[in-house]
Amino acid sequence: MAFTAFSGTAQAAEPAVRKRSPIALLLLLPGMFYLILFFVTPFFSLIITSLQEPDPLRFGEFNNAFNWQNYVIVIETYWEQGLRSIGFAALATLFALLIGYPLAYFIAITLRPFPLLQALGLVLVIAPFFISFLLRTLAWKQIFATEGPVAGILSSVGILEPGTAITGTAFSVVFGLTYNFIPFMVLPIYSILATFDLRLIEAGNDLYGSPATTFRTVTLPLSAVGVISGTLLTFIPAVGDYINASRDFLGSADTTMIGNVIEANFLVLSNFPAAAALSLLLMAFILVLVGFYVKRSGTEDLL
Amino acid sequence: MNRPLPEDPMIRSLIAQAKRAQVSRRAMLAGTGAGATALALAACAPASTELSPAEDNSANDPNLNWANWPLYIDEDDDGNYPTLVRFQEESGITVNYLISVDDNNSYFATVRDQLALGQDIGADTVCLTDWMVNRWIQLGYTQELNKANMPNASNLIPSLQNPAFDPGRVHSLPWQGGFAGIAYNVERTDEVRTVSDLWRPDLAGRVTVLSEMRDTIGLIMMEQGTRIDADFTSDQFNAALDVLREQVEAGQIRNVRGNSYSEDLVNEDSLAAIGWSGDITLLNLEAGYEKWKFILPETGATLWNDNFMIPIGSTRKANAEKLIDYYYNPEVAAEVAAWVNYVTPVNGAYDAALTIDPELAENKLIFPDDATLAGVQVFRGLSAQEENEYQAAFQAILLGA
After folding, report:
1. Mean pLDDT, 10 residues at a time, over chain A (303 residues)?
2. Are the C-beta atoms of residues A233 and A104 closer than 8 Å to each other?
3. I want to staple B333 with a disulfide (CB 3.0 to 4.6 A). Which of A199, B94, B346, B374 is the partner?
């Protein structure tokens, strides 16, 4: 959705005359139909819903209107949760990058002479996916329990006051987000580094570049595409995530993210216009941010 | 009009291009049409017209879909439901038992559009909690029950016969009920007797309360001396809300949870909680001894029921009524109660239970006596306006907004 906005430059290379084949159109049809039915329709529905006003007589019912104040109200009410979501997601993306890049580098480059170990390393990154996202998050809740192993060790060495809660804090939510999205960071970086020409590093050494300089001026720029897709793949789902910050998982009233607000408005409060307005604002925010980010990093090719 | 094309190759190609452009204009029109269709689809929100019940086709259709909560019917080791198997044999009706309700709100969100159009929701009877039943009845989403088809329905215990949301039980009949009270870990903390005991310094950060507004706020209101089954005011509701907000913000209440509060009790993140009677019975059963004590505070506990309803779009009303009637047979009710550990609404089930399992029959949380029932209150039905206002204020605390 975001990506058509940035593809303007791609048109120049169009060949002058292209033969139109009805088969191509026919093949496109199911995809177009799918998109119209499952993306365009709900999208319009969301816009319409976000502008609805409450029925004056029947409570809990909404009528179509142009009630743009819905947007003002949700921003005023939930700006704090919105900012928190961005902050948490940014932190999680940063930590995932700090952990994920060395991991991808290790698997793709250090382990390259050992294909078997490399395959094993990749399996270890992907393996958690074979277990449900919810179960993994619930497991962390148990591990971080007040009477659990982590709190036990930390309090026995005096870092943590006994009885301190680890779950329900900003730490546990950012931890959960980082943990759950690390594979999304590792895999794109890995796929770039896996085909990275090691002779370039040799060349860097031959030219008296220290390992750090070689990394900074050769390896990192050449793997930037992987880093950018990794950060996008981590940040976008993380900012709208409502599992980790949910009160039933690692969060509490202090760590509510925008996904939880949307869920509560939609399911519990039946305030559909507010939920729709928040969803659209979140979409718009991600669109603008991604556009800005991609423009700045100069990698339109990525999209 | 079929003129030969001019000779000049430049002009020829221009004309050819123009022809292609025409095609694509047509294609664009088609695209616009698709967009309009999408808009029309998006706009077909349920119309708010008077709903009429679907025609009953039970005589020709010996099937029934029953939507219910998890772990809410007797089950044997092979995963069969003994009482339901017997019903199918006796009645010749094939029952499709759906465990599709795990939250009143999310279930309602799933089916509300079909209900608003009077369509079948894939369930011919569904068991939901009192306040949600209230909403369905107010919105006209239920069919009237025909008591002539349900002679056993007269076994309903008197205290549940005339709830405010459904006087005379025209639209609903209870399936199971339970209490919300206080549970605490007897090994880790001193006796907890009242709601304000939960705010003791030694329990700081070790208390969980329910995300079910009526139970948590209800218990606090009763402690403040407000009757929740009578016409309390917004001020009285807000007074209880203030207590909750203060304790959440102070960190005394560690978390506000739904069903998952029992996990917190087990891993001892929480040493005391506002919880549901049946859950605590089950936890103690799993622990093998009474590790958690469940009490009904002297100031009052809440009583809630989940109730059978027949959705407006069901074409199998008579079949559903046969099923409900079957479960109002005291022996069947006792068998279910013995398994699910919740309160049965059927008169005579206690006597039946005495023969199945005398110890169970003496459990006041499953077969409450008059003294127990005198200390509990049912949260009164809220008007839609109150529901919106109170729920918004309650959720604001939960979201930290």
Report:
1. 42 53 86 92 94 81 90 95 96 97 95 94 91 92 89 87 86 96 95 92 91 91 91 94 92 93 90 95 93 76 50
2. no
3. B346
Chain B residues lying within 8 Å of A145, measured CB to CB: 267-269
Q: Which residues 201-240 of chain B have a CB within 8 Å of chain A?
A: 205-206, 211
Q: Are A238 and A93 in contact (CB under 8 A)?
A: yes
For an interface test with B, give the residue of A20, A248, A263, A272 to mutate (most B CBs within 10 A): A248
Residue whose structure tokens are 């890995």: A190
In a shared domain, residues B268 and B210: yes
Domain count, chain B: 2
Classify the C-alpha dihedral A213-A215-A218-A221 as positive or negative: negative
Q: How many other C-beta atoms lie within 10 A of the C-beta of residue A181?
A: 25
The CATH architecture annotation of domain A3-19+79-302 reads: Orthogonal Bundle (1.10)
Q: What domain range is B255 assigned to?
A: 178-303+382-399
Are A148 and B267 in contact by the 8 Å Cβ rule? The answer is yes
Give the closest-approach CA distance of A8 to chain B in angstroms.
19
Q: pTM (2 decimals)?
A: 0.81
Residues B166, B185: one domain? Answer: no
Restricting to A residues 233-292, those with a Cβ less than 8 Å away from any Cβ of B are 247-248, 252-256, 260-261, 264, 266-271
In angstroms, how far is the first alpha carbon of chain B from the final one? 71
Each residue of B250-286: pLDDT tens digit? 999 988 988 888 889 998 999 999 999 888 888 888 8
Q: What CATH number is given to the structural domain containing B288?
A: 3.40.190.10
What is each CA distance from B146 to B324, B333, B344, B365, in whole angstroms?
11, 20, 22, 31
* Cα atoms found within 13 Å of the Cα of residue B162, Cβ hemisphere only: 1
One domain, residues B147 and B209? no
In a domain, B69, yes or no: yes
Same domain assignment for residues B285 and B312: no
Task: Verify that B170 and B222 share a domain, yes or no.
Answer: no
My answer on whether B147 and B279 are in the same domain is: no
What percent of chain A clears pLDDT 90, i.e. is strictly above it?
63
Cβ distance B383 to A260 less than 8 Å, yes or no, reads: no
* Chain A interface disruption, residue of B49, B203, B399, most A CBs within 10 A: B399
pLDDT at B18: 52
In this predicted complex, what is the ipTM?
Answer: 0.82
Same domain, B89 and B202: no
Domain check: are B252 and B322 in the same one?
A: no
On chain B, the residues whose CB falls within 8 A of the CB of A264 are 395, 398-399
Pick from A60, A78, A138: CB nearest B401:
A78
